Structure formats: C-alpha cells, structure tokens
Amino acid sequence: MKLSLKKRLRQVPYRKKVVAFSLAFVIAGVSLLFSFHMSRLLQHKEMNEMALWSFAMERIGESAHNDPIVYQVIHNQKIPYILTDESGRIEKSHLIPEKALAHPDIRMKTIMRLARQNQPIEINTPRNGKFILFYGNSQLLNWLIFFPYAQLAVVAVFALFTFITFRTGKQDEQNRVWIGLAKETAHQLGTPISSLMGWIEYLRSQPIDQSAVDEMSNDLARLVKVADRFGKIGSETTLTDSNLNEVVGSCVHYFKTRIPRKVTLTYNGLAMAPITARLNGALFEWVVENLLKNALDALQGFGNIEVRLSEDGDNAYVDVCDTGKGIAKSNWKSIFEPGYTTKTRGWGLGLSLSKRIIEEYHKGKISVVESELGKGTTIRIAIHKSDT
Asked: Does CATH number 3.30.565.10 belong to domain 236-384?
C-alpha cells in the first residue's frame, strides 16, 4: 500500500517527538502563566502604593511626600515617577535621570512613556491645587514582565537542540544499520557469484548456443557490479575523471536488450562530443539504472524512454524522460524520501539512495524537472564537469 512502509518507519519516532514537544510546551506554558500572574500581582501592589501616596497628599497636602512612612512606601519600592502641576511644570521626580528632565523633548517622551505604563493619577491637594502623578514600573517589575519571554526563548532553544540531537542520533543509527546491511549483502553475494562464474565457464565448453551464455555472462557481470556497489556504501568514495557519455551509455545498452518489445529506449550521448566529469562510475551507473527502472515501471510495458545528455558552461545534465503515468506535483520532492513507493513490492529506497549518491558523493543535484499525470516524467541529474 502506498506510503505504508514510510509510515511504519516513522510512527514510533514521530510519537516520541510529539510527546517530547508537548511536554516542553506544557512546561513553558505553565511557567509563562505563573510568571504573568506574579507580574500582575506586583503591578497591582505598586499601583496601590502610588494610590496610597496620592490619597495621603489629598488628605494632608503636599507635605505627604516628606512623611517618613510614605517615604518608605514610595522610595524603597524604586518606582520611578514625575509629579507635575496643572500647567505641566515638574514639582517632584524620583528615579528619573536629570538629563531626561532637563531637555524638553526628552522630558515629554519620558512623561508619555510613564503614562503608557500606568494610568496617571490626578491629586487634588487642599492647599496647592491639582497635581498629576505619572509613574512607571519598577525595575523588578520590568524584569518580571520580560522574564516569561526569556523562559520561552530558553525552552524553544532547548527544544530545538533536543530535536536536532534526536534527529541526528536517529539518522546516524539508521545509517549504521544500512551500511552494515549493504556490506553484509555484498559479502553474501560473493559465494553464489563465484559459483555462477564456474558454471558459465563449464557452459562455454559445452555444445550449446553460446549467445545465450554470453548474455548470462553479461548478467553475471552486472551482478558483480551490484555487489561492488553495496560493498562501497559507507566507504570513502573515489571520484575520477570519466567519460560521462560512455558511463550513461553502458547502462542504456544493458537495458536495451532487456526491456519489453513495446518500449522504445533512445540515447543521444554516443552521438555527441565527450563530456568529462568526476564520477564514481559504479555508483553513478547505479543511479542511472534506478531512474531507468522507475521509468520502465511507470510505462507498464508500453511507451517511450528518452535519455538525454546535455551541458552548459560548468554543468552536465542527464535527463531520463518517460511517457508513463506521471507524478503529482505535490510528490515531486517526496519521491526522494526513504520509504516512499507506489508499488505493492519494494522498499522505496532506490531514489533515496540515488539522491544521496548524487548530492553527497558527487556534489550534484537530482530532481523532477517536469511531470504531468498521464503524460510522463522527466528526472534530471546535474553534476559539475571536470575542469579543463
């Protein structure tokens, strides 16, 4: 069933991620709410203290500012304020820089800032008329207001770091498993390959149609290449200057004698000037073969496959075009993910391995450049040409 393997592979890690991130956001949310609650309590406390001083001034006059008890209430809490008369002249201030009070524009901006932080209080004194009290938040309150956002940022960074670590660890683990499996596969193939070589040599000495033996020998040579490719996975990849026309051409030639009769396979590379690129021939052939196999599967026994070689200033391109069933645009990137498959059989790893071989080993790019449902698909390999 489509995507079933992919879903099975990701189900458990996905649940762990959901649980981890949910827990992180719950902790962050509770901490955020608690800090907001504490900041609101402190803000109400400071508002009540300023209201108390205003009430004292209204009751006993402006001298309330010098009352020892009121002084302790106001000054020990480190609440910045500016007290003005009705005309805007500053009567008193606290924790406001002298520079801000001396310059008219800065003074007005400071008063407006205090007014935005807290509603100004009108004070009607019995002797000196009306005053207006502009006050802001204490430094402690400002810290407490911004503390939840700092907490949230720390939790977000921690969650991101955890996610990256978890993802990297899982990828490393999966890579080790696949590398071990590939090397073990190459090792296990060695015995039957050796046996088949012996049987082919025996058949060559028998009075039978040798053309069939030659084809069997070609298939065996291909099997040796496959085993060699598996053995190279996880090892240091050696790139050499290679004739791209011939590397791609050998794949096309091998498939031409093994495709259905109603499928046409064409290639333009052998009729054009050689293009040299740094390749690992065995691995690059693997990619081309994967693309040809996918194209054959898409045709379902009838249609055309065209392999086109082209170049521009610095890059060489290999396009594999088919007239098959096509790929929905929403899946153009998904087809290169491990486990993605539309076939009832298969693990959906061919294009994923192809992407890794091209992008990680050859520093190139593989992508769907054109596809339309019911009309066909073009997948392109782009690699750098050798310096001339």
From this structure: yes
Task: Name which residue leads in pLDDT, 355 or 8.
Answer: 355
- Our CA dihedral for 359, 364, 367, 369, rounded to 10 degrees, sits at 170
Within 10 A of 335 (CB to CB), how many other CB atoms are there?
22
Paired tokens of 167: 């993802």
C-alpha closest to that of 133 among 59, 62, 83, 87: 83
DSSP per-residue letters across 294-326: HHHHHHTT-EEEEEEEEE-SSEEEEEEEE-SS-
CB 383 within 8 A of CB 315: yes
DSSP readout, 197-266? HHHHHHHHTSSS-HHHHHHHHHHHHHHHHHHHHHHHTTSPPP-EEEEHHHHHHHHHHHHHTTS-TTEEEE
pLDDT tier for residue 343 given thresholds of 50, 70 and 90: low
The amino acid at residue 335 is I
Rounded CA-CA distance 213/204 in Å is 7
Q: Which residue has the tokens 């040809």?
A: 292
Tokens 């690992």 found at: 280
1-5, 192-196, 380-384: range with lowest mean pLDDT = 1-5
Q: Which two tokens stand for residue 311?
A: 């170049």
Q: Is the whole-model pTM more than 0.70?
A: no
Q: Say how far apart CA 153 and CA 210 lie, in whole Å.
A: 74
User: Which region holds residue 120: left if phi is over 0, alpha if psi is between -120 and 50, else beta?
Assistant: beta
3-state secondary structure of 75: helix
Residue 370 reports pLDDT greater than 90: yes
Q: How many CA atoms lie within 13 A of 25 on its CB side?
A: 6
